[in-house]
Amino acid sequence: MSAGLLGEAHRLAAAGEAAEALALYDQVLAGDPAAADAANNAGVLLRRRGAEEEALRRYRQALAAEPGHADAGWNLGRLLLERGEADEAFLHLRRAAALRPGWERWHGLGRACQARGDLAGAEAAYARALATRPEAVETLNNLATTHQAAGRPAAALPLLERALALAPGHADIRYNRALLLLLLGRWAEGWREHEGRWRAPGFASPRRHLASPAWDGRPIEGRLLLHWEQGLGDTIQFLRYAEAARARCGELLIEVQPPLLPLLRGWAGAFAAGDPVPPHEAHAPLLSLPHLLGEAEPRPGPAYLAADPARAAAWAARLCQGPRAGLVWAGNPRHLNDRNRSLPVAVLAPLLAQPGRRWISLQVGPRAADIAAAGLDGVLQDVAPALTDFAETAAALAQLDLLVTVDTAVAHLAGAMGVECWLLLPFAPDWRWGLLGERSPWYPSLRLFRQPAPGDSAGLLPALCDSLRRR
């Protein structure tokens, strides 16, 4: 009886009658909980419905009944990977690839390895996937990002170019290539390719649809609107081009994220996103300015942001006395690369133990709780509750002799203000920091400290502690 029900359930599922098929699978499993095919197929239908927890339960039921069920392990691993549970996903996907090897399985295993930070495992899995399907552009793209994360950007570029030769319209791969060109210091070509970022499905900022035409960089007599895109740090970084744009128009308007508006006191034409957009004759996103202005290669320049004097005076009275150093150890947890750029504050305990200065925590968000968890309450003065916007952060920074921070928006703010800042970079840095050297072409006041190996946050400590002693 159960074999007949199972066959009918399979037929209904293939015909797209999911509800009826699920009812029959449930009936089969009520009579025989060890019916692995019924449990796995029910999981597939539940996953399509968005019932992830129920799908997980059915996949696990199938594997409990038949540990070697290659499809149940594959389906479970993929769902776990999508949910961010990479370690368990890896175990199931590795077994599924061994049981039924092929391009799709090896590619999925590579993704799990990448998510776990196992770059060697990812490289091996993607190599096996490409041996099966050499023209798989998704695998070429992922292998390129693996090489880049492992510190081999020169090996990544040919893979992206091969992928684009196979799929010239693949916007995500073209965007990845643009960022890699910028990382390699091929600025003019990188900015030109970067103009295609809006077509990439994975690009974080939606394209603005405004009634005015897009600005082409040539002088205009009327109003020019510059508008924000991407993150707060991106906006701060590219505000450096505002005056060059102002020189090419009759009047400049600058739209920024609301937390940044108080920082731009006295900037003519600045307003917050969400406010009505004033009439204007042309518009441009901030990160297009190097391309539009023909200033491809970044050049160090003077500070272009400053703290409000009244707020700065209030912070001078609020902070502990003596030489002051600020600390930020984590960025936005929603950032795609946060697991690499942020670090545990406890790793920095030897730095904080150096005598001669008072440490101020400018860490905002949930990671501010790390201070107590690491037992550093008596070492770090936590001022996060008072950092209500970036004008307050700027006023606090103005009282510091030094800021030590991971790659997040406060580093850009310190650089834009000319505050001395030591920036802690992951082994594979973001494109804007380049591959080598201690100095940034964007901000003269920044000194770059680079991880010596992937994930080696502790490897930053010898140079940091030695530099602090010398300072």
UniProtKB/TrEMBL annotation:
Keywords: TPR repeat
Name by which UniProt lists this protein: Tetratricopeptide repeat protein
Signal peptide: none
Repeat recorded as keyword: no
Record InterPro entries: TMTC_O-mannosyl-trnsfr (IPR052943), TPR-like_helical_dom_sf (IPR011990), TPR_rpt (IPR019734)
Ranges for the TPR repeats: 36-69, 70-103
PANTHER family cross-referenced by the UniProt entry: PROTEIN O-MANNOSYL-TRANSFERASE TMTC1 (PTHR44809:SF1), PTHR44809
Keyword Transferase carried by entry: no
SUPFAM superfamilies to which the protein is assigned, alphabetical: TPR-like, UDP-Glycosyltransferase/glycogen phosphorylase
Gene3D superfamilies: Glycogen Phosphorylase B (3.40.50.2000), Tetratricopeptide repeat domain (1.25.40.10)
